[in-house]
Amino acid sequence: MASLAGIGLASLVGPARAASGLPPTTLTPDQALERLMEGNRRFLAGSAPSGPSNLERRIQLATGQAPFAAVLGCADSRAAPEVLFQAGLGEIFVARNAGNLADTGAIGSLEYAVGNLGVPLIMVLGHEHCGAAGAALAMAQQNLALPAHLRDMLLPILPAALTALRAGGDTLDGTVRANVTLNVGRLQTESSVLAAAVQAGRLKVVGAHYDLDTQQVSAIS
Ligand SMILES: [Zn+2]
């Protein structure tokens, strides 16, 4: 993101401006979603990665980037979006933290992806057996004591944990799914840049779940 320092505010509120030597993707939000899911199907089928990461592509990427989608994912080592979607270098813009949270760093990163790189799709990707969701659930159930930074980081997941506890059943799975839905909403309520892009039809923000047992990504409605 070497060009970040040169960003003008105008580029963050209007249509995407070329922030690199490559033109933005021409995919619609729905086409970008289909391309991601198609990548997960290739991953499921055990196909060899087919992302364009050859030498020619790497040289081209030295002039800029034009990813077709962005993913807000969990830092969990088992849920790497580039792997799950068989995406090559330069194809997806990824923001990750424990709990796939729409915090300041994630929102700012995604505003750059949408406002300057013209990304038409953001996927918030939660996953099965999420440790961050589990810890938030334990905080809600047992008032679990945690180191300060870890506790503060997990606090935004508490509303999802409480929703899951009220609903009953598999409360960890419920927390993961409610947390994804919460953060899909937060991206749009806390960022006027992202909200304006959604309003203009240039962007879709969707929620999804990665199943560690089946390696399948599925939509969370
Ligand atoms: Zn996780």
TrEMBL record:
- Please tell me which top-level EC class this enzyme sits in: lyase
Instruction: List its EC numbers.
Output: 4.2.1.1
- Positions the record marks as coiled coil are none
Q: Name one Pfam family in it.
A: Pro_CA
Where does the sequence pass through the membrane? none
Q: Which domain of life is it from?
A: Bacteria
Spell out the protein name for this chain. Carbonic anhydrase
**Species of origin:** Falsiroseomonas oleicola
Q: Does the keyword Signal apply?
A: yes
Instruction: Give the signal peptide, or none.
Output: 1-18
Q: Family membership, please give it.
A: Belongs to the beta-class carbonic anhydrase family.
Its UniProt entry gives the catalysed reaction(s) as:
hydrogencarbonate + H(+) = CO2 + H2O
Keywords for the protein's UniProt record, in alphabetical order: Lyase, Signal, Zinc
Q: What does this protein do?
A: Reversible hydration of carbon dioxide.
Q: Does the keyword Signal apply?
A: yes
